[in-house]
């Protein structure tokens, strides 16, 4: 049997221990995730705000439906995970929920009311998305 990948994978396929691919969506494509090494916890939120999660091991495949917010998290304490994604479109697009909400200039008062918190908390969250000097 020939190996699927004969050399080390590119680093952009690797999830270091404890890392997360934050909540995001692909507005124009379904995503198929194939885990080749390690363990990932994945999840997506459907249109009724129900969260679906699954713990994946090497060899598992998971489908994220088109346009739904989803994430991947490497829950291992000391080991990386390697995954390969395929999309149902050549132009899947990616919308990062945290940066879209917090780094696009939306008024602090609107965000505070939306998240049912105060402006100070919103400003602290936004600071994490400020450009690095």
TrEMBL record:
UniProt key word Nucleotidyltransferase = no
* Keyword hit for Secreted: yes
The record's annotation in Pfam families points to: Cupin_1
Keywords per UniProt: Apoplast, Glycoprotein, Manganese, Metal-binding, Secreted, Signal
Q: What coarse category fits the chief subcellular location reported for this protein?
A: secreted
What are the start and end residues of every segment in region (Disordered)? 1-22
Where does it reside?
Answer: Secreted, Extracellular space, Apoplast
Q: Do you know which InterPro entries this protein is assigned to? A: Cupin_1, Germin, RmlC-like_jellyroll, RmlC_Cupin_sf
Quote the CDD domains the UniProt record gives. cupin_OxOx (cd02241)
Annotated Cupin type-1 domain residues: 7-123
> Record's PANTHER family?
GERMIN-LIKE PROTEIN SUBFAMILY 3 MEMBER 3
Per the record, the similarity remark reads: Belongs to the germin family.
The name of this protein is Germin-like protein
Its source organism is Gossypium arboreum
